[in-house]
């Protein structure tokens, strides 16, 4: 990953509008225009569960922005910021519900990059996501 950041000039910080709205819609748009195989339909139930968990965690993070998840493990950097974790869970859930292969890979790559602290993801807030911020 260091070679990629050095030679491809990958960003070190992404705003919440970019990583949560703009880039996923571009990924889905690209995928619809190409002949990429879709994920199996069996993953849709898991997708609804992940999206629901992301939504619930997102509401908790908006109501209590100073909280963090009590988790120590490989993705502890994401757990310290519940709004980012909620966004990533939601992206993964939407990817499974829509059967989008590239969106699932995008969500997994963002989770890895944020979990290893190679990239900083801005925490989504209601102002930035709904306009006005």
What brief labels describe this structure?
133 residues, mainly alpha, two-stranded parallel sheet, 7 helices, 2 strands, 64% helix
Give an overview of the whole structure.
The chain has 133 residues and is mainly α. The protein has one domain (13-31, 38-130). Helix content is 64%, strand content 3%. The protein is built from seven helices and two strands; from the N terminus they run αβαααααβα. The protein has a two-stranded parallel ribbon with strand order 1-2. Helix 3 (44-63) packs antiparallel against helix 5 (82-97) and helix 5 runs antiparallel to helix 6 (101-115). The longest helix has 20 residues, at 44-63. The protein is globular, with a radius of gyration of 15 Å. The chain starts with a helix and ends with a helix.
User: How many independent structural domains?
Assistant: 1
Structure annotation, total helices: 7
Rg over C-alpha atoms, rounded to the nearest angstrom: 15 Å
How would a textbook summarize the main sheet? 2 strands, parallel
What order do the strands of the largest sheet run in, or round the barrel if closed? 1-2
Q: Mean of residue pLDDT?
A: 83
Q: Provide the succession of SSEs.
A: HEHHHHHEH
Beta-strand percent range: under 5%
The residue ranges in which pLDDT falls below 50 over 5 or more consecutive positions are: none
Shape: globular
Helix content: 55-70%
| SS content category | mainly alpha
Q: Could you state the oligomeric state of the chains shown?
A: single chain
> What's the total count of β strands?
2
């Amino acid at each position: 990953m260091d070679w990629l950041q050095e030679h491809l000039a990958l960003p070190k910080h992404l705003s919440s509008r970019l990583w949560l709205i703009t880039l996923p819609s571009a990924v889905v748009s690209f995928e619809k225009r190409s002949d990429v195989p879709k994920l199996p339909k069996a993953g849709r139930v898991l997708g609804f569960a992940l999206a629901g968990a992301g939504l619930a965690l997102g509401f908790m993070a908006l109501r209590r922005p100073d909280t963090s998840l009590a988790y120590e493990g490989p993705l502890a950097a994401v757990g310290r910021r519940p709004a980012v974790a909620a966004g990533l869970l939601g992206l993964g859930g939407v990817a499974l519900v829509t059967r989008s292969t590239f969106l699932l890979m995008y969500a997994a790559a963002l989770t890895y990059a944020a979990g290893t602290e190679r990239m900083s993801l801005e925490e989504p807030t209601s102002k930035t996501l709904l306009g006005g911020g």
